[in-house]
Every structure is written in structure tokens, then in C-alpha cells.
Amino acid sequence: MLKGICIGSLAGGNNAERLALASDAGFEAVEFVTRPEGEAPTFASSAAELQEVKALAASHGLTLSSTLGGVFWQYSLTADDESVRRQAIDYAAECIRVTKAIGASCVLIVPAVVYMTHAGEPRQVRYDLAYERALAALKEIAVTAEAEGIDIGVENVWNGFLPSPTEFAGFLDEVGSKRVGAYFDVGNIVPLGDPADWITILGRRLKRVHVKDFRRSVGNINGFVPLLSGDVPWEPVVQALREVGYDGPLTAEMGGYKYHTKAVAYHTSLALDFILGRRS
């Protein structure tokens, strides 16, 4: 497995600074965010700009394995407004296009927003409608993903959707595409159950893995903590990943530090060395 990190977890004013930091800290893979505008890679980026991102990563010896679709909370695939759902599907196609252009092979998608548990917001859509809409949307997105040779990673997030591993696995099976699987977030699942169980049950459906840590005693959004300082049982998690044959990146999605902001990268890289058994 590779040591990966999200671009947003890296201190720096631009891609060049962030990727240089990732390389210096010992990471092997970086995950970019795909969104309508901003610094490349975006939906508005030219072909040349997207190639520059690809080349910049390569110059630092970094793999671009996946991207994070940064639009699917605001533009939900399950919104009551049909025009918003249509926009979300169109944005998914753009995420796929940009991901392929930079040489990555998987897009993270938030499949639904029933409610935002992390924000304490009221329900946005009825659960059965969310399930129906998410299923229909992902079947449509899968057609594009299959044509372009890009995987879709459906992430388990705090959205009030697919709260058990068996339901998550069944949902993916209903989509019915080998290109659509799980983008499993180890830390997100800690309040709901044992992440190793989820990994075992999802099995072959795993496309990518996010890592962060969480303290159950806090029990809310403030419970996310640096790797190895929470309640994630890392040895069983890594063992389960190996048993199901996962050999992709463990991509750290970390919050920032108030001081010495670059230290996040170095601390996280060291923690991943211990998690992966490279140090003991």
C-alpha cells in the first residue's frame, strides 16, 4: 500500500509548494480536489494546465491515484430539486474527465445527502427517496466511468446514508458496475462500528481508502484527531485490508495545525509508516 495525502492537508500557497512538501515528507501519492474553478485541476482548466499538474506530480515522484469530487455536498445527487440533481450528474462527468486528464484513476463521490450529521442540520431529503435517486444517478454516472476507464469511489460520510456495511455493499451491488465501488473512510466509520468489519464485508468492492483518526469519547466533528491518537484499531484495519487484497493508497485526510502548519505532513507520514508496518 502507498502512503497518500489529500492536497488540502498540505500547507502551501499553490500546487508546487504543496507537492514539494508531500515529496519531502515521504508521501508516495497525492489526491487532488476536482471542482468548477480555482487552481488546476478544475473543470475550467485547459488541457495544458491539466498536463502541468500531471507533470508536476511526476517531477516529485508522486502518484496521482484519485481525486475528490468537491461539489457533491452543494450539488447533491439526491436533492429534491431535479435541476440540482442534473447538475450533480453533469459535474460527475466533469470530475471523470479531469481525473483522467491528470492521470488519476478514481473519483470520490458523496452519493447522497439525507442530512449533514456533522453540521447538525435538519433532514434534507427522505431516506427512501435518497436511496432511489442515488442509485439511479450512479447507474448513469457508471456509464461514463466505464467508457472512460475511471473508477467511482462512493464514500461513507456523515450524511445519514448507508449506515451499515451490509447495506453499503448491497447498494453498490445494485448499481451493478465494476467501475463503481467503495471509497472507504476509516475514521468516518468509528462512531458507527468497527472499521475492520466494514473492510471485510466490503471486500472486493473497495476502490480507495481514506485514513484519519477519531475519538469516540468526543463523539462529534471535534473528535477527529491526528493519526494514532484516536480509537481506530490500526493493526486489525491493515490486516483486513491485506486480507481482502487491497494494495492501493492509504490517503490521509487531515485537519490543519494552528502553528507550524507544515508539520501535519511530516507527522502524518511518520504515523503511516507505523500503521503500514514500515517502522516498529
Which properties best describe this structure?
280 residues; TIM Barrel; 8-stranded parallel barrel; two-stranded antiparallel sheet; 8 helices; 38% helix; globular
Secondary-structure content class: alpha/beta
DSSP helical segment count: 8
CATH architecture: Alpha-Beta Barrel
Strand neighbour order, sheet with most strands: 1-2-3-4-5-6-7-10
Number of strands: 10
Residue share in helices?
25-40%
What is the straight-line distance between the termini?
17 Å
Q: Report the biggest beta sheet as strand number plus sense, adding barrel if it closes.
A: 8 strands, parallel, barrel
What order do the helices and strands follow? EHEHEHEHEHEHEEEHEH
What's the overall geometry? Answer: globular
Q: What percent of residues are in strands? A: 15-25%
Task: Please give the oligomerization state of what you see.
Answer: single chain
Mean pLDDT: 97
Q: Radius of gyration, rounded?
A: 18 Å
Could you name the ranges where pLDDT drops below 50 across 5 or more consecutive residues? none
What is the highest CATH level, the class? Answer: Alpha Beta
